[in-house]
Amino acid sequence: MPKATSRFLCLLAALGVSLAAAPAALAVDTPFSTRFAQTVRGDIRAVGNTLLTCPAADANCANAQAGTGSTLNNNSYTMGNVDVDSDAATFNSSSATVSLPAGSSVVWAGLYWGADTSGAGGSADAPAPASSDSVRFDAGSGYQTISASAADVLTSTTRPTRYRAFRDVTNLLPAVGSGTYTVADVQAGTGQDRFAGWALIVAYRDDTQASRRLNVFDGLGTVEPGSSFSTNIGPFLTPSSGPVTATVGLVSYEGDAGIASDSMTFAGTGFSDTLNPANNVFNSTISSNDAHLTAKNPDYVNQMGIDIDSSTRTGLLTNNQSSAVLAFASTSDYFAPTALYLVTDEGPAVNSSDPTIGGVARDGATLTADPGAWQGTPTITYGYQWQRCDVNGLNCTDITGATAQTYDQTAADIGSTIRVVVIATNDAGASSPATSNQTATVLQDLPANTGTPTIAGAPTDGEILTADPGTWTSTDPIDFEYQWQRCDADGSNCVDIDGATGQTYELVPGDVGHVVLVEVTGDNGTVPATASSATTAIVGLAPPVAEPAGPPAMSGTTVEGRTPTADPRQWSGDLGAVPGNLLADASCQQLSGNAKYRRVKLAGIGTVRLRAYTSGPAMKVTPMRVSTQVTGGGAKSVRYQLDGKALKAKKAPRYLAKITPAQLKRIGLHTLKATLKGKRGASQQVALKLKTVPCRTLFTAQRWKTTAGAGLRLRIDARTALQRIAFRVPAGLLPTQTTRARKIGFVRLLIAGQKRRRFELVLPRKGLALLSGAGKPSVTYGTAGLIKITRVPARAAVAELTLYRVTKLDKATRPRVYKLSARVLRAGSPQERFSASPAAPR
Hints:
Largest sheet: 11 strands, mixed
Radius of gyration: 49 Å
Strand content: 35-45%
Number of strands: 62
């Protein structure tokens, strides 16, 4: 025996019902399903009446109608039509009155009717059994014929002449709902064990009442003697907290008052009261909360064939309950349940699907909250509170003033994650908070160009063009990459110039007759942006230059395997590792192209952008930088290896690392590997090939305080011989002439194959020559702070200029940014320009 059946028998035994055998379960004719469901301030009322009763001539009939005596069942009488409307055109009729609170209005109304169309014991069949789908309905202004759809006329599988029909009559009732309603011409046969009746279920709105969930479910079940029947009722919704009060109402046909052998449970609890005992729930009563409903015509206590009963209870249902089992059993009685209405308390809205966030997690970008799905009384309004959390979505705090559905991210959010908390409010009050998942880590904003890049320099073969990147906006500092392009004379068909990726570009004969532009890419570690300059004028030929007279050509001598030029000071070969030169491979290397990156999508991690970049030569104080950016997912950690050896790296969001020349060791190709560990899954690698080349020229500037005032040192390091040098120094850093000549500094030279040479500088009382004479370089002090060094000795690899100011002029060296520049002519190379802004002395 199934456990459920066993428990049900125990329940009936406890109720005093004696059973000879366990009831057998029958197949459900039509399972109960939702007919109507809405949450409103209001309630449900149900009325109805019988349409067949016992004959008045029978001595026991009056007592049976009053629910007294021992002969109470329709089996004991030749049942005949009830007809109260004094209308000869109808063959049966009855009425009932609906009373709703003042000010209420009808939300929904459904009319149910049912009967057995066959006659019994020589009595008549229904006048027109085929018209069971139609009745006459009077809502106060006269009869009108209404019909049910074919799907809403249900018949019993065990007794096919027994049926029930349904019609939505919401639009037939007056808006106020209250009134007397009459139903006539329900197709019913007469005779013993015959029944007929109708029920009107009305859902109404009353704004003075609490919010409630109103549900109506219907179908058709057959409970034969010795059988059981159950069906699932749902979905519905109960409050998320507090005691739950529910009203359960049922419409059923053919229960007998004199057969105490039937029962009903809902949500596992027996349905009974004084008028509907636990062992005789279906006893042909029309009642509500243990009181007969008397506003009907005829007003019988015993309907002899229809039950319309309801009961209100607290604790029948639990919090957040959305379904329940409705079960019936009988040992001796037959009945056919057909409709159930359920009214439950309604609390604040309940979240059934978490809020979500749309948008990109980036400074300056807008995030938009979707409140998620909520169940509750309309109209629901939503309140938002955005929160800032750590990268793991923990330690969240409210963002002051961020209470709209959208949120514009700021620099304060960078490195954090964002989530939103939503509270729904309806007539029942405010809900419990519902919280979204956090976003990805907020990144800095995208770089944006706000002022077009420009090009300085003459468009002439051999001249050097210099790019100004223009103006850009960004949260973090922007690194700039350059790509020069050669175009047709009209500015069309522009193509990249191979290797032209520096801030400067020396025009070559191939540019003559073309125009040139530069593309500048700004990158702050997010998504790079590119802006293009205007094109130059058409590049022309350089004017002829007279060759200066020089010493006689040398012969029979080579330096490092190369033949010297006519001027012994102008060696074109690499001077090698000159002692003291900063350009040794272990101290200075240049990343070919200044920036390398690789973008790849890794399963379970997201889009990974591995980048290595410099803004100039890589040295110990200005190393090559490495970063890894992960978007569309996340990594638990990132580790780097350079040529198989580990690099130290910082943590998220960019996993920054540095590479010095000492770590590179050698010039040439290197392999940088990033090992990313996913939040859920195995580690994956991304590799980047780097190519380094020797540093060729380096301009450095330094300022410091001395006991005499302040010092300034300008230095040029080169790998090939220097020929001429020019420094432009702001007047605020230069010594000034006085009434007497005085020492102001010195020039120091490092020359391949020789010891260092130092030359003192003297600022004369008049004149601009700081150093001159045989065997010495020439140093002159020109206008606008221009200091020129010429006649540089052959194979000079380093030229260093040191200047001092006296104490009286030290005021000018207070913290202030000065821009210094240098121009260099090396043997066999075009002129180069450099700039620097040394830090102020402290």
